[in-house]
Structures are given as structure tokens and as C-alpha cells.
Task: inverse folding
């Protein structure tokens, strides 16, 4: 019996996932809607289902579907949610209760979206009925015409996994782990535990793919037991397979690691090797994720606006020469700069934004840096230097290592702004 059918359900948080949950449920159960910012929703259908704060507190709901963006400690219904925590579920739980399709669920601190996109394109080329969903931007409950053979590639955040109670995935992937979202999870232990819920819920015949050379992953594996077969990916060992790949996108250490996971999953699925290689050769990556914006003889510009922590920038800093590194924004709590010393002389940092002191402290004594009020000012300074040194090959890397919310809606907004700056100020170089 489905635990969500014909029930009294509160959906809290009406972003993409919340609205998709409402549309999925509206003819299946008695639905009530709540959002901290009710006034921004103009749809009459949505307005009719809204319930005010006082009524929420008096109502006895069977389940609460909580959007991943809602922080249980910092929302209007905080006390109510804590009292009713056993009733909270995620959209992943709802999906699992209605569909038992095979899923490849990918999580980790860095590289989730790129690995999901590549896995999706690989399966599509091999003629699978495959859907790409989750944190990558397509809510899982918005998918239509699901068949028994439909396979799902899911990008799962720690927020989604933390709220999930019944979701299971036949294939689970943890790419890597480093301190992230500590402001939400409060401790590193809780962050890691949220990620490992993906493995904890698996059955014996399921497969889990994890990074072999990862301290936090190994620590968790040693202190806990899991039912599924765990396959450790040795990211230090470069396969012969890479000799067949002629795609600049996979020159960085980070993207090579992402590819190694896709190769191991492909082996488990017995995919055709020739089609696999074709897909990899043509893969262009995703916008604002280590995206090569310009490539000339003496100048490369890379837009990596997606970078929100030091660990997500390390791959690019290791893989390029004569780097001018643009960074700044809202730093992640507990973030540490762990680039090996041998790369320091190869980089000059141009730090922008209000939190310059944080980045100054982390880079002091390691990398030469200069401070700027804005991203625009920092880029203009870099371009003025390059004009004087036209015959020396330089790489401009925009990899902020911080969240974007100080000045932008999200990393896409930040990435688009950087592209516009480059287009405007690159003239004559």
C-alpha cells in the first residue's frame, strides 16, 4: 500500500521540486501548500491550496514533503517541523513509492552535475530510455511517461538525502567528500552521514561506487557496514582507456576522475565500448563548469563559476600554466586551501568581493594575491597585465571557490556576468 495515496499532505517550499510535487499529487491526495514567501505565487490553483501559519500548527498531516532548500533550523515552521520530523519525506521518497525503476544516483562534494550529464549522454547514445533528474535542475516528480525500463540518472544533494527516508537506488555513487554545507548540517559528521544514506539504504544485490583515495569516504566505510557491493575507484591510476580519448575537456584531474566513475558504471551495465568512446569524444561539459570560454595561442579563459569551494577549484589550478586566478564571494564554513606547494609559483590570485579577508588569510604565504572591490575591477586589471605581456601564454581561470549569493542569484547568473565582462573588455587583446 502506497504511504502517500489518499493522505493529508503538506508540501513546504514551492521552488521547482515543491511545485512538481504539488502537480504530481493534486489528484492523488488532499494537498496543502506552505511557503515562507506566499505572496510571490500568483497562480490561482496554487493560491487555493495555501494554508496559513496558524492552521498549519493545528492540522494533523499524514506526511510533510519538504523541499531540499528549506533549512529546518532557519524557517518559519522550524518548531513544527522538529516536532513532526518523523513525518518528513523528500520528493525522492515520493518517486520511490510510486516507481521502482533502476536508478543511478550520484552524489559527492564536487563533480556531480558533470558526471550525471556524461552518464546520461552515454546511456542515451546506447538507446536506453533514460531521464536526467534531481539537483541538476529537473525535479524527479516532473517526469512524464515513465515506463518499466526507464532508467533514471539522479543528481542527489546532501539536503535531499538528509530528508529522505525510504528512497533506494540500485546504483549509488559518491564521487568525493570534502567539508561543504557545514552552515546547514552544522558538523562535518552530519554532512558525511547524509551522503552515506545513499549506501545505507541499498540492498545486497545493489552496487555502490566510491572514490578509493578519499579520507572521509574511507573513514566512513571503516566505521560502518553496508549491504551492497562496494566498488572502489582508484582515481590515481590512469587507465589505458585515456589514450583513446582526444577531448580537451578531460585534461583536468577533476574531469578525469568524473570519467573514471562513468567507465566503471558502464562496465557494470555492459555498455558497448565503441559507442561509449564516441560519446566521450563529443562531450562538451556543462556551462560554467570548467568551461573553456576562449582558446588562443597565448591566452586561455576558463569560466568555472560553479566552483563554490577551494576543493572544486584545485583540479583547474593543477592542470594549467601561468594562471591568473579570479576568486571571491561567500566562503564555505570550514573550507581549507589544500593545493600542493609545487603549484604555488604558477598562480597569481585576484580576489574580489566583501569577504576578501577570508581568502587573504587562506592564501597568505602561499600565493601572491591582490584585492579588488568587484569582479569587473579584478578582470580589467588582469587584462591590462596581459596586454603588456602579449607573447607569454597565460590562463585566466574564473573559479570563485565561494557561493555567489553576495551579488548574484546563483552560479549561472555569476557565470553569465563573467562571460559578458570578457566580451566587453577583451577587445584588442
Result:
Amino acid at each position: 500500500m502506497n504511504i502517500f495515496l489518499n493522505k493529508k499532505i503538506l508540501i513546504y517550499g514551492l521552488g521547482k521540486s515543491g511545485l512538481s510535487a504539488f502537480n504530481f499529487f493534486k489528484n492523488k491526495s488532499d494537498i496543502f501548500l506552505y511557503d515562507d514567501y506566499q505572496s510571490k505565487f500568483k497562480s490561482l490553483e496554487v493560491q487555493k491550496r495555501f494554508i496559513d501559519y496558524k492552521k498549519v500548527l493545528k492540522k494533523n498531516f499524514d506526511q510533510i514533503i519538504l523541499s531540499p532548500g528549506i533549512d529546518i533550523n532557519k524557517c518559519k515552521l522550524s518548531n513544527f517541523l522538529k516536532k513532526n520530523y518523523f513525518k518528513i519525506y523528500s520528493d525522492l521518497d515520493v518517486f520511490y513509492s510510486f516507481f521502482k525503476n533502476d536508478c543511478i544516483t550520484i552524489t559527492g562534494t564536487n563533480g556531480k552535475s558533470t558526471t550525471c550529464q556524461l552518464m546520461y549522454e552515454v546511456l542515451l547514445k546506447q538507446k536506453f530510455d533514460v531521464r536526467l533528474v534531481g539537483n541538476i535542475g529537473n525535479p524527479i516528480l516532473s517526469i512524464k511517461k515513465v515506463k518499466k525500463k526507464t532508467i533514471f540518472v539522479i543528481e542527489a544533494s546532501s539536503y535531499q538525502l538528509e530528508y529522505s527516508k525510504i528512497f533506494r537506488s540500485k546504483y549509488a555513487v559518491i564521487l568525493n567528500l570534502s567539508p561543504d554545507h557545514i552552515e546547514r548540517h552544522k558538523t562535518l559528521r552530519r554532512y558525511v552521514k547524509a551522503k552515506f544514506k545513499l549506501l545505507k539504504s541499498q540492498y545486497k544485490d545493489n552496487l555502490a561506487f566510491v572514490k578509493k583515495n578519499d579520507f572521509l569516504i574511507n573513514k566512513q566505510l571503516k566505521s560502518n557496514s553496508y549491504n551492497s557491493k562496494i566498488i572502489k575507484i582508484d582515481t590515481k591510476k590512469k587507465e589505458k582507456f585515456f589514450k583513446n580519448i582526444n577531448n580537451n575537456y578531460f585534461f583536468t584531474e577533476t574531469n578525469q576522475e568524473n570519467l573514471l566513475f562513468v567507465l566503471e558504471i558502464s562496465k557494470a551495465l555492459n555498455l558497448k565500448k565503441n559507442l561509449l568512446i564516441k560519446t566521450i569524444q563529443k562531450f562538451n561539459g556543462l556551462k560554467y563548469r570548467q568551461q573553456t570560454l576562449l582558446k588562443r595561442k597565448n591566452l586561455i579563459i576558463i569560466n568555472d563559476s560553479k566552483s563554490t569551494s577551494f576543493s572544486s577549484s584545485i583540479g583547474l589550478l593543477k592542470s594549467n600554466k601561468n594562471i591568473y586566478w579570479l576568486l571571491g564571494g561567500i566562503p564555505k564554513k570550514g573550507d581549507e586551501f589544500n593545493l600542493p606547494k609545487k603549484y604555488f609559483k604558477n598562480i597569481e590570485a585576484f580576489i574580489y568581493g566583501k569577504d576578501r579577508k577570508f581568502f587573504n588569510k587562506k592564501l597568505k604565504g602561499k600565493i601572491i594575491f591582490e584585492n579588488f572591490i568587484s569582479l569587473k575591477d579584478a578582470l580589467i586589471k588582469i587584462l591590462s597585465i596581459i596586454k603588456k605581456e602579449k607573447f607569454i601564454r597565460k590562463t585566466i581561470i574564473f573559479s570563485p571557490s565561494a557561493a555567489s549569493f553576495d551579488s548574484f542569484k546563483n552560479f549561472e547568473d555569476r557565470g553569465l556576468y563573467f562571460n559578458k565582462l570578457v566580451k566587453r573588455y577583451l577587445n584588442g587583446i
In short: Residues 259 and 322 are 26 Å apart (CA to CA). The chain has a mean pLDDT of 93. The first helix runs from residue 16 to 25. The longest strand covers residues 323-328.
